[in-house]
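fwd from M.: "can u put these together and see what the complex looks like"

so here's what she sent:
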Amino acid sequence: MTTLTDPPKESFRLSMLINDTRYRSLTFQAIAAVALALAIWYLGNNLIQNLRAAGLNISYSFLGDPAGYDINQRLVEYDSQSSHARAALVGVLNTILVAFLACVTATIFGVIAGVLRLSNNWIVSKLMAIYVEIFRNIPVLIWIIIIFTIMTAVMPGPREFRGDNATSSMVLDLFAFTNRGVYIPMPFFENGLFGNATLNWILVLLVAAGAWYAVRMNNARAANVQAETGVRPKTIWVNLAIWLVPFVALMFIMGLAWEVPELKGFNFKGGIKVGGPLIALWFALSIYTGAFIAENVRAGIQAVSKGQTEAASALGLRPRRVMNLVILPQALRVIIPPLISQYLNITKNSSLAIAVGYADITATLGGITLNQTGRAIECVLLLMLFYLTASLLISMAMNVYNASVKLKER
Amino acid sequence: MSDQNNNSIAFVATETIPESPPPARETGVVKWMRENLFSSIPNSILTIVSLLLIYSVLKNTLPWIVNGLWTTSSLAECREILDGTTGACFSVLTERWNQLIYGFKYPVEEYWRPNVAFVLMLIAIAPVLFFDLPRKLLIFTALYPFVAFWLIWGGTILGPLVALIGFVVAGAFFQKFGRNNFALGFFGAVIIALIVWSVGGAMIPEGASDNALLPAVPSRDLGGFMLNMMLGLTCVSLSVPLGIALALGRQSDMPLIKGICVVFIEFVRGVPLITLLFVASVMLSYFFPPEATVDLFLRVVIMITLFSAAYIAEVVRGGLAALPKGQYEAADSLGLDYPQAMRLIILPQALKISIPGIVNVAVGLFKDTTLVSVISMFDLVGMIRGPILASTEWNGVYWELFGFAAALFFVVCYGISQYSQWLERKLHKGH
Amino acid sequence: MKKSVVFGALTVAGLAAGAAAAGTLDDVKARGKLNCGVTTGLVGFAAPDANGEWMGFDVGVCRAVAAAVLGDPKAVEFVPTTGKTRFTALASGEIDMLARNTTWTFSRDVDLKFTFVGVNYYDGQGFMVPKELGVSSAKELDGATVCIQTGTTTELNLADFFRSNNISYEPVPIETNAEAQQQYLAGACDVYTTDASGLAATRATFEDPSAHVLLPEIISKEPLGPLVRHGDDNWGDVVRWSLNALITAEELGVTSANIGEMAAGTNNPEINRLLGTEGNLGEMLGLSADWGKNAIMAGGNYGELFEGNIGESTPIGLARGLNAQWTDGGLIYSPPFR
């Protein structure tokens, strides 16, 4: 019987740390860890020394102090006696507001331009190509400034609405377009069921949600009937009634009325004011990002092979159904991921609000608060934390979506 | 026979009718217009709306441009001459041309230096962009950063020279040892370069820049469109190698290195560039040693480089992921180790796929260099928003200035993106 | 003086080898240049002219300090700073002094650890409105839209003023003066508010300055002055007394025109001490004996700087007002040179 002997045990040599693949990755990671630790220590040490030399310290207590400045665009209660933290919250909400609005309109612009660019109308497709190229190749900061300047220079000031020979007038006596912003009528309830306006609006929302659910039920019933008998009952009138009747009744009960903006003193009063900086930033971001989205949409539609269209037509589908049932679902899979990263870009580019004086988080926390308190490190860190959180949330949503539309290959 | 001919039936034509032209609606311009402009009612409406749009834009801008004045010395003078008629005041461009291009501090008698650097840049960048050019030109490309640095900043030539020697020595060391043992070659090269730089840096005599051939220009004096170009070029070229390293790190099996790269990339991509510029302008000085102050230009270059490196890393990662797995396996089966496989097999292919993406990042980055105007650097936009619009003579000239800035950026960015598309087509032909 | 060689070799020009613990004065002397923080552009106070030379009242103070320390008024590196970056630039040592019409307030002095070495301009926040609005007092501004140039104490004063008078307003914060002007002129705001000196400077650049009025209310105290870091008293003294030298020179009638003959010696011992022909004040500061003379020669005495940059003969056209010498009923007052 032969005996199997273990191969001679290799003694550990120092050179194995570099030459032996078993140890090499450990060596590299150790080097990386040491380098990282050294870098952190070096930077941290410098920071501490510099702060000590300047007699400063890192402290976030300034967030609780009264901010002392006013903000014109705010979604929550705020006045100059509110804290810096509250001012930052106003900024956060404003960032979300403009980012959301810009995402919606940029998508609309982008889809229209992307589809029209594929149009067989020569002049239209060329115009769209010019739009896309011009907006993609000029920095967004320049666009924001130009659009803000156009707005203030071209739109009339409230002064021009005044007097007997006013040079401007309100559209339909309801809307006022001025260079300070657009004033639109605000709905309110004269005898709401609750004393609080917010509660009344929540009630309206609830009713709408209920109607939406009922419509879905009705459609599902129609689908069942169709499956059993082959004839789909007409649902449109029932659906319309479900939508309108409770809504109109509610409005009637609560006494819906409109508060129309009116020129009083220096400004229009009443109604809802959409501020000039918000409009300029919103429009600039939408039209700039719209150009990028147009390219994504075009690429997405072109990515669906022509055979798909032909196959669908061969099945006897009409062109609209070909688009809805065959092309779009496939194109969307290509369009959505870059679309989401455009949404991320909009959120990040909204930080350029400081160029037009829109009170987003960069302008409140990273602007006036930073100026007034001089707490540069703290403010910038908080600012980055906010954007990082927002970006991570959006990317998370994107990953969930991507997983759900992934081609299920068998 | 002839009989037949003579008695032919009256209504039978004896000779062929001459070819008549096709109906007017089926030829030439008309056909083209029918098919491309008025093929259906909605299409016709769209066409008419577009024409009206074009007309209204031209009607408003053409007289403004044609009536433009180029030679006055202030806006007030423009208004006087125009006397109420429409017309642009382009004189601001001619009068402030130098400031728009070079910033307001760069010494006038030294303008030839950035100009030469610009021309040399075109030569240096050509072999990178066009693969058909002789590869020997790449040597010039490698030398260019040092030449350009010396031209633009001036001062003693010893500085860039020491930096160059450091790179050359490190490169030579890597050539000698890196072939067989990548780690030894790489780390050895880094250490040797550091040694050369510190020894060489210490040997540069104090005040060597005072009487140099080219007078030294502090980087604070750079400005205008030149600053945009420099920031864009420097940061892109620095961030490509960094981005590749990050992409490889992100693909690595080593959890620690992968973790560092992922955290870095996601962090940088998650925040707007402007917050990073705030870091450069208000925070970064606290992280340098107390006895050294790093000037704003360098701080901004560091932050923008890190920023674009993260984006380039993602592009390169896409390129790496797009390579078929067979390539990795083939490299392994040849017995190549990781550095060899990467250098010889994977990266050449992955980078080729990534080039259009990298060019897109570069265009975006170049546009983003305008953001430095927010942190008190006088780039093109900063010059316009700051000194020029604030001056007594030109207070109120908006369209001409921003139009000029937009046009300048458009020309450069459109050129680059056209190149990128050309390259994409060219690369596709191979398959 | 240490030198960061690693960075140094990589970016010789990019890295200004800087301050050791020895003190700012020694650093400035070793460097041969004074790093002075100024605004990015406010005509009259600090703005580059068409040739790229920095001009203005604050710039004059920088030049005077450079002349006192280095003997050369041109040995200044002007560092443009925004409202956001100025304090970091000073605290981190990027600049040696800040002369950027910065208001001396308690929290900046105590909390941010800066030393204000004096006041070179007494300012206050005012309002400008178009004449056609017919407003004659700031208290009539209820409901008005107000353009503010951000980055100073302006927003806070404005909020306090409207709050204490119990009237409402809409603030429009704008980053740069040029854009705020554009907004104001286009009628996007009814009122423009910033320091009264800035308003005058802005109005001077308008097409028709007479169509706009400055309201009589001055709603805040804005003592503007140069500042340095806490903890380097020697350097603080240098800047303080350079400024005082300019003020004293005006009081004593020393101008850039007659300083040559005065420096030969006069009967007035204070002038002699100021110009270094008597006593050893320069030595006490660690400067040369003729530091005061250099400082005054740089751009003239306080009065000359004022008249040349922002005075009534310039487009900005500010009256001396509070900024007259104490002997003329103003607040400008220097401790004695003794």
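replying to her w this: The mean pLDDT of chain A is 83.
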